[in-house]
Amino acid sequence: MATRETQALIIESAVNLFNQHGTARVSTNRIAQACGISKGNLHYHFRNKESIVQSIYDQMIMEVRRNWRDDHLDPTIQHMAEMYERQLMLIWNYRFFYRELVALLRHDSQLKATFSEYRNSRTAEIVRFFKALITAGVMRQPEGAQSLESLVRISWILSDNWINYIEVDGHEISPQTIREGYALVIELFRPYLTEAALLEIQHYPLQAGSPSLKAASEQPGRKC
Amino acid sequence: MATRETQALIIESAVNLFNQHGTARVSTNRIAQACGISKGNLHYHFRNKESIVQSIYDQMIMEVRRNWRDDHLDPTIQHMAEMYERQLMLIWNYRFFYRELVALLRHDSQLKATFSEYRNSRTAEIVRFFKALITAGVMRQPEGAQSLESLVRISWILSDNWINYIEVDGHEISPQTIREGYALVIELFRPYLTEAALLEIQHYPLQAGSPSLKAASEQPGRKC
Amino acid sequence: MATRETQALIIESAVNLFNQHGTARVSTNRIAQACGISKGNLHYHFRNKESIVQSIYDQMIMEVRRNWRDDHLDPTIQHMAEMYERQLMLIWNYRFFYRELVALLRHDSQLKATFSEYRNSRTAEIVRFFKALITAGVMRQPEGAQSLESLVRISWILSDNWINYIEVDGHEISPQTIREGYALVIELFRPYLTEAALLEIQHYPLQAGSPSLKAASEQPGRKC
Amino acid sequence: MATRETQALIIESAVNLFNQHGTARVSTNRIAQACGISKGNLHYHFRNKESIVQSIYDQMIMEVRRNWRDDHLDPTIQHMAEMYERQLMLIWNYRFFYRELVALLRHDSQLKATFSEYRNSRTAEIVRFFKALITAGVMRQPEGAQSLESLVRISWILSDNWINYIEVDGHEISPQTIREGYALVIELFRPYLTEAALLEIQHYPLQAGSPSLKAASEQPGRKC
DNA sequence: AATGAATGAGGCTTCATTCAT
DNA sequence: GATGAATGAAGCCTCATTCAT
Q1: CA neighbor of A100 nearest in space, from A87, A88, A89, A115
Q2: Which residues in chain C are closer than 8 Å to D147, comparing Cβ atoms?
Q3: Which candidate from D102, D116, D153 shows the least CB-CB separation from C184?
Q4: Residues paired with residue C193 on neighbouring β-strands, in sequence order
Q5: How high does pLDDT run on average in chain A?
Q6: Is the confidence at residue C205, as pLDDT, over 80?
Q7: B touches A (3+ CB pairs < 8 Å)?
Q8: Domain B68-221: homologous superfamily in CATH
Q9: How confident is the model at residue B106 (pLDDT cuts 50, 70, 90)?
Q10: Is the entire prediction scored with pTM above 0.90?
Q11: Nearest CA to CA, how far is A191 from chain B (Å)?
Q12: Measured CA B43 to C1' F14 distance, in angstroms
């Protein structure tokens, strides 16, 4: 099989297992088994377990980079919905990573550096988006110099942890739960939205038919 | 040595190590070493690793039960500050638990049941507190039937994960970071607070001199 | 409690547990628990596990010595039945010992010496009993110099292992199974018994009402 | 090294050690050492200790199946000698198994089922053999409906335990001791044998030169 | 007599990783 | 590219035993 294919298979299986059981409880053995390849082969493609995590991280960052460019150029409520949906889906797909963040970053300083950089630049981009929203008259300027940054921070923490919050209750993740997470974000920003924006929210709710949400609802059926 | 003392020592050491490295990366061996006792003795006091986690959880719940009663009887901004400070400190002290929540609960169904019950009853108590705040005229009723519940949910997720958020940046936890977490909660509720309440916030910020914050600022210096 | 009582309790519990699970699978811990005493106390009474086995052995030998004297002075079929019943009961009561004989004796050379001596002298006594039976006209002399010794040997091996043989089938031990074991011994000697003896066997079968058989049928209900 | 070779080596070493010390006193560690392989490698080939015992049992049953077919088609004294010799050798080779039968079967219900089935079908085969002997005029029909079955049972118990009986005395096993065991079986059946058969026994004693007996006499010198 | 705390050796097993083929 | 055999470290746990009280 081509190197790329095997590597992709390994990463896919690893992500699934890590999401289900956490990195510590998943042995390289188990990953190899899930892929239907030998332990030896796995180590041919990845020097060690850590490098699998690294690759998963790289892949995640690549997805981020592909999706998240120039959000501030389309300052609409609809785009906001799409933005948060994308973010929540990404977190769902790599939820093991968000759960173990502290330990993983403490353990790998290079990973830590790139993650911090990602977080900062992404936060800045979101702030820029909300400033564009304000300029476009969709939202009012919160009072206080730091207020907008604070709200974005809150929305960030909310996004990062909504899925975790839901999982603790034992709920399955679904388009519905993703929509509920987004609803909380709206609740956070509601006092600052204009009448027009609030109306639009009711007309354009997060759509169950969007492609990434479909992926989410299918995912539990995967085999690895 | 008395059983109680040794058990307390083990739990203290385990909490510290778990907080630093995560439960999976801390062996019973390492805990015993940190305590300066033999492996055998550790297993004399705790049948296995899981039972250590159980005991830590029990201790945490006991602290919760001791602290959180009848919060809604004192519906003031000052009490609100204390409430959230307490909550943030608790989470800081047992942060490993909050990080690994999903895995731990998935692994232990009894623990899951008690935790769900705790979360529900505590959420209800906080909602009651905010209703009392509204009745006392400190806060305005948010529009929409579900709004207050949603805000409380957001504040919960915020509290649970603020410390994680900060730690990823590599910041040490300190009275200052606890205060910043509380500031975010205030930012969340700000649109609904009355003028009087907002004034009070400026006059009575979270005090660096409160006992639990002192504990927090000292804790990083512990030995185990 | 008096030393004697505690020691007796320990030995009783140990015999029961050893019989059920084998010496290797029974820890001193478990014995102490079964007795309701502490590990420390157990080691106060018995230096180590081996010395418990030693004591059990001594007790068994004492029972033997008490029961088996001058069997050859009463050379009747009835006495023969009683002899074998006694032997089978003893083996049942200390069956763990007979199962693990080789390992136990290999491990403890003093025990080995006393056991060999016991076996030899007991075999000689049984041979003497059968010679008396022959003299009394109850049995015919088997042809061949070694024959009687061989038959006694066979009956010995039979007695030692009948209970084991039965247990493998998962049958509970009962007066009935003891009687069946004795029936095999009779079958072995049948060709050498006179008509009168054979008649007597039918008139005086092993009695279910004899004291030691009662003990046997009650024993499974013991608590330790 | 090939998997088969290593596995065979492990099993061979394990059988030897189990025979010498009993399963409980032989650690997987010790087996690995005896084989000159690492602990890890041992567990690569056998998931755990129990599965080693299982494999040994399977191997024993295979040997049985290979050897014991259609014994009743050759109803001669010579064949009888060979039959019992084979049986005694098998028991010698796997004597640990026969000693610990009760504990092993109690511990593993699958093993128990197969063993019971083996014992029953083998006993039936031996009974069939003796019936053929009677038909062939080599042996007389014992009186009483159950007598033949009883004699076979006795010979079974005798075979199973003769080696144990001898070992307790500390005797090394040798062609001579195997022959003595067989002699006891003959003693058991002697009253029912015809003149011709008895003569034949004297002319064709168990041969020291038969292949399996050679194996037996060499075995004590094995290294592991 | 009895207890409970403590120890250290050793048992079983998992696992990441290496390497010859 | 891939495999399977092998390794050694480390993890969790049990246990006989000791000792102060």
Answers
A1: A115
A2: 187, 190
A3: D153
A4: C139
A5: 87
A6: no
A7: yes
A8: Tetracycline Repressor, domain 2 (1.10.357.10)
A9: confident
A10: no
A11: 7
A12: 9
CA of A120, closest CA in chain B: separation in Å? Answer: 10
Fold adopted by C56-221? Tetracycline Repressor; domain 2 (1.10.357)
- Residue of C3, C15, C5, C9 lying closest to C44 (CA atoms): C3
| CA-to-C1' span, B221 to E16 (A) | 34
Q: Residue C70 — left, alpha, or beta (φ > 0 → left; ψ -120 to 50 → alpha)? A: left
Which residues have a Cβ under 8 Å from the Cβ of B200 and sit 6 or more positions away?
Answer: B76, B77, B78
Among B56, B49, B48, B58, CA closest to B114: B58
CA distance D148 to D137: 15
- Name the helix (H) or strand (E) containing C51: helix C49-67
Tokens found for residue A79: 């785009």
Residue with tokens 């970071």: B177
Alpha-carbon distance of D156 to C165, in angstroms, equals 10
Contacts of D120 in chain C (CB under 8 A): none
Exposure class string for B91-107: b at 16+ Cβ within 10 A, else e: bbbbbbbbbbbbbbbbe
**Could you tell me which chain B residue has the CA closest to the CA of A113?**
B169
Amino acid identity of residue D139, one-letter, is M
Cα separation, A88 vs A108, in Å, equals 25
3-state secondary structure of A193: strand
CB C130 within 8 A of CB C74: no
Per-residue pLDDT tens over the stretch A71-100: 999 999 999 999 999 999 999 999 999 988
Is-contact B171 B214, C-beta < 8 A?
Answer: no
Question: Pick from A82, A27, A75: which is nearest to A49 by CA?
Answer: A27
The separation, in Å, between residue D27 CA and nucleotide E13 C1' comes to 12
Token pair listed for D66? 């290979």
Same fold for the pair B1-54 and B68-221: no
Taking the C-alpha atoms of residue B89 and residue D92, their distance in angstroms, rounded to an integer, is 69
Joined together, the tokens standing for residue A139 give 């939202």
Whether the Cβ atoms of residue B11 and residue B224 lie closer than 8 Å to each other: no
Among residues A161, A160, A135, A165, the alpha carbon closest in space to that of A148 is found at A135
Indicate whether D89 pLDDT > 90: yes
pLDDT category at D60 given cuts 50, 70, 90 is very high
In the chain, the amino acid numbered C159 is S
Number of residue pairs across C and D with CB atoms under 8 Å? 96
Phi, psi of C84 (to 5 degrees): -70, -35
In angstroms, the CA B30 to CA B42 distance is: 11
- Contact (CB, 8 A) for A25 and B103: yes
- The three-state secondary structure class of A101 is helix
For residue C185, give the nearest of C96, C98, C87, C95 by alpha carbon. C87
Q: What residue segments make up the domains of chain D, in order of their start?
A: 1-52, 68-221
Evaluate whether the domain defined by B1-54 bears CATH number 1.10.10.60: yes
Q: Which of A154-158, A177-181, B65-69 has the highest mean pLDDT?
A: A154-158
With contact defined as beta carbons under 8 Å apart, do D220 and D173 qualify?
A: yes
Q: Taking the C1' atom of F10, which residue's CA lies nearest? A: B27
A198 token code pair: 């609030």
CA dihedral B102, B107, B113, B118 (to 10 degrees): -40
Helix, coil or strand: residue C139: strand
CATH architecture of C1-46: Orthogonal Bundle (1.10)
- β-pair partners for D193: D139
CATH ID of D1-52, from 3.40.640.10, 1.10.10.60, 2.40.30.200, 1.10.357.10:
1.10.10.60
**φ, ψ for residue B193 (rounded to 5)?**
-85, 145
CATH 1.10.357.10 fits A54-221, yes or no: yes
What is residue C170's DSSP assignment?
T
The nucleotide minimizing the C1' distance to residue D43's CA is E13
